[in-house]
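Quick one, tokens below. Sequence please?
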């Protein structure tokens, strides 16, 4: 079977969120389990996030990235203890990649009033834009995808035979970062440069919105040794599991490698990813006997310490090894 004949499963979540008939919830749980066992990825509709909220978010991202470069640089995440704010194109380089990512990004998360745990929690950095052009639509969207990420976690837990109450053991105050992204046109990238190079997500559930009609996401099909393009369709989200879920589930759920190549010569591409991980000091709730007692915070620092210059206080806070 060629990749032309393969598509990621498209799962209607409305049967879980608003069940109409007996067995609706169980059917969705089984479909999600099958998709995450086979691919680690699936597409979803019936997710409950209004189109107006999605479109408002994309318009806000466009407004943000069209700000003058010198104004965006004043919002640099490198100057923020909680690593919130703007990432310039060419800053992110993964080990093994020949060239840095061409994307530019903007990071935010929970709106905690004070900095806690050396920056794992804290206030967001909001650009100097009118409320209705950025903060309002972006915050509405963040809250909506925060809720969707939690719903996906509940479904995944039930797919392994656990109760949704298990969320209370590892997600009382979860880390839920969100990354807004703009990829430059293909004509503005270097030969061999990716929008985002091949990688696995580090942690929990990823909720991805793609700008409709602006394709570029590709998922690695293990066993077939090929890349599967994932179309960017309006009102359809892409959901995937990270390495932490794969390890916590004992390999039941997959974490698949993926990358982004904006194939449009003269058009930029927007997307937004919300990552629902868990509490900073949470360990594997699915298997308390797991010999790997690494916390969510330790796993995060271990994964990104070569890409991000975490300060010593943060590393000491989570007890990560040097």
């Amino acid at each position: 079977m060629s990749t032309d004949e393969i598509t990621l499963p498209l799962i209607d979540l409305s049967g879980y969120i608003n069940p109409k008939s007996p067995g609706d919830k169980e059917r969705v749980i089984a479909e999600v389990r099958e998709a995450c066992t086979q691919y680690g990825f699936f597409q979803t509709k019936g997710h409950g996030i209004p189109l107006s909220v999605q479109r408002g978010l994309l318009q806000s991202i466009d407004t943000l990235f069209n700000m003058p470069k010198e104004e965006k640089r004043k919002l640099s995440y490198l100057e923020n203890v909680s690593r919130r704010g703007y990432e310039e194109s060419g800053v992110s380089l993964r080990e093994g990649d020949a060239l840095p990512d061409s994307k530019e990004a903007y990071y935010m998360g929970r709106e905690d009033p004070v900095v806690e745990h050396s920056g794992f929690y804290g206030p967001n950095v909001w650009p100097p834009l009118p409320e209705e052009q950025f903060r309002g639509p972006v915050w509405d969207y963040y809250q909506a995808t925060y809720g969707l990420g939690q719903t996906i976690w509940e479904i995944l837990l039930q797919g392994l035979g656990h109760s949704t109450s298990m969320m209370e053991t590892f997600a009382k105050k979860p880390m839920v970062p969100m990354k807004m992204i703009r990829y430059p046109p293909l004509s503005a990238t270097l030969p061999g440069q990716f929008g985002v190079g091949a990688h696995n997500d580090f942690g929990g559930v990823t909720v991805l919105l793609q700008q409709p009609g602006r394709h570029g996401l590709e998922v690695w099909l293990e066993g077939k040794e090929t890349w599967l393009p994932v179309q960017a369709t309006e009102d359809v989200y892409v959901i995937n599991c990270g390495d932490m879920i794969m390890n916590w589930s004992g390999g039941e759920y997959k974490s698949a490698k993926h990358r982004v190549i904006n194939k449009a010569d003269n058009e930029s591409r927007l997307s937004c990813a919300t990552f629902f991980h868990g509490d900073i000091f949470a360990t594997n709730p699915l298997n308390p006997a797991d010999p790997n007692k690494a916390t969510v915070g330790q796993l995060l620092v271990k994964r990104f310490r070569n890409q991000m210059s975490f300060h010593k206080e943060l590393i000491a806070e989570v007890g990560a090894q040097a």
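Residues 56 and 137 are 6 Å apart (CA to CA). DSSP finds nine helices and twelve strands in the chain.
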